[in-house]
Queue: 3 jobs
Job 1
Amino acid sequence: MTRTVTRLYDQHLAVAGLKTTQYSLLMYVKHEALPVTRLAALLGVERTTLSRNLKPLLAAGWVTLQPGTDPRQRIVTISAAGGAKVRAARAAWRRAQAELEQTLGAEAVQALHGQIELSMARLAPLLEAGAP
């Protein structure tokens, strides 16, 4: 189910030259510059995965890595070009959301969000405990 929904959003965001993961990442740093470790935690991904996802955004000039207070720390910051990319992609995101709601129904989409949140809350302790 999640792959199908992601494909729907990816189809819409392709018009803006983004993938769903890239749009999500840009949205996080649009609101606040974040250390790489904190951003990875918020996105629920490993640091190595985040580093791979950041590479095309860095290459495009949509985000920058700034030094943190600790020399080993890097802060992900959105650039002016990244902010413009988010604004350009917002309409595509809304079209994807509208198509999803039109196809499934608003109540089903709301229920789906509730199930995902509940599932994530229940699964989080397993990930934090380092279960195999």
Job 2
Amino acid sequence: MSHTNKVFVPLNVAVLTVSDTRTLETDTSGQYLVDQLEKEGHKVVARQILQDNRYQVRAQVAQWIADDSVQVVLTTGGTGFTDRDSTPEAIECLLDRRIDGFGELFRQISYEEIGTSTIQSRAFAGLANGTLVCSVPGSTGACRTAWEGILQKQMDSRQGPCNMVPHLTPAAACETRG
């Protein structure tokens, strides 16, 4: 079975920035993802900024995973090694299946940009309830690396030989939420 579809399928995406300091006005990483998603033709159905609190992050991501209108959740921030970084601990327990290659490929691409510092990235992805969940570091550069190197193509139904779109639950009718 071919996983390519020559017709573009816009996806419904929720974007979460995990940060103790950013606001909508200063969140260049989340805004970068929103801009790229919209430019590509996807629909941003929700956007949120939460402090790095594993239980609040887990609750928000779980809500989006349970929402039939959300097909993809992108998170930025909280993937490093400081005491406050808890995005992997917050979200990984929600995943039905990990996509190990996502973090591996992200670090491989990132190595070309930042060298061995990439080992401190705990970027990861997985599937939960038919929803693609991807978590990347909080810098705008890291978001650009993830978008240009992985996400843009894997979220495009026309990408061959395969992409993530066939694995996602078809979206229910939805309205934009904040």
Job 3
Amino acid sequence: MRKISIFTIFYQSIYSFKDIAKFRFLGIGQTMQYVFFLVLLYFLPTLFKNILTDGNSSFLLPGFDAGSKAIMLPVFIISTYILNAGILFLKISILAGAALLLGKLLKRKLPYRQSWRLTAFSITFPSLFFGLIPLFNIDIPFATLIDFAIALFFIYGSISKIPRPKNKM
């Protein structure tokens, strides 16, 4: 598949099952780059709300003076970003296993590497949605289950757009 802009992938992954199914052929490097971009989009609203809107970082780093906070805040932000990236990669890996099962149920040929890539693009909408929720101070009960359900819906829709393998005689 040709080199495609990360912003185009992001936009099309929000709504198009057919395009998500096509993106499973992208290289792993571009898929990883997209996942790190998605982590950034997921992480920025919370960071914006906690630090910039509230204007107070003392709850993040209690017990530090102003000079220490200037040093520790970037370390805290970077380590939180890395932690969020790890969690998102774990989520993609777990959902990719579920995508393998869905692929078998729908009688589609889907190796794990394509399943992982398809899942990485399928979680765009739920990640964006649940990343923006903190800005509105909304508490959603069972948010993790709803997140997984929406992701599975997108995975199912994308797998159903994969053509069935032709029967050999």
